[in-house]
Amino acid sequence: MSSDQTPSGTFSDPPALTLWNRVREREEWTDEERQHILDDLFPEDHNVVHYVKRFAALLILSTTIAAFGLVANSAAVVIGAMLVAPLMTPMLALAASLVYGEMRRFMGSVALIVVGTGAAIVVGWLVAFFASGSLTATALDSEILARTSPSLLDLGIAIAAGLAGGYVLTHKGSGSSLPGVAIAVALVPPLATVGVTLNLGSTDLASGALLLYTTNLIAIVLSASVVMMASGFVPDHVRLIAKGRFGVRLLPWAVALLVVAVPLAVHTQAVIREEAFTRVVTQSVAEWDPRASLLDVSTELSTGRSTVEVTVATTSDSKRPAWELAKLIADKEGVDVDVEVTFQTAESDASSTS
Question: pTM score, two decimals?
Answer without folding.
Answer: 0.78
